[in-house]
Model the fold of this input.
Amino acid sequence: MRARIDANICTDSSAAGAVGVLNNRYGPPINVYAFQDMAKLKKLIPKVVEWERGLPYRYDRRWINLYGMDGVMSGLQARDGADSARGFSHPEDQWDAIAEKTRTFYLDSFWKMVKRRGAEN
Done:
């Protein structure tokens, strides 16, 4: 969830590919385990969202900016002596709202998935 929030804070949409890389690498084994007990998962996910909401950010949330093409190009331009000082994140005063919107979307998407799986079983 933190990676998705950080991707949404980034203005370079190509940086969101980092979230896909993380999901592809770690998502399948997590899902295999998590979906074994849907009752437990339905209790856990809202707690995870609440926990994330209250946990301080003790890292540079702009890490993901380096993953996108804008960050790569900026680094190449800086290497060649060009000014590459533009930011790749939304203004910091918007980060809390972006994070909350991301949490809400995540939780809503989870409940939709639960409903679909319930219809399948």
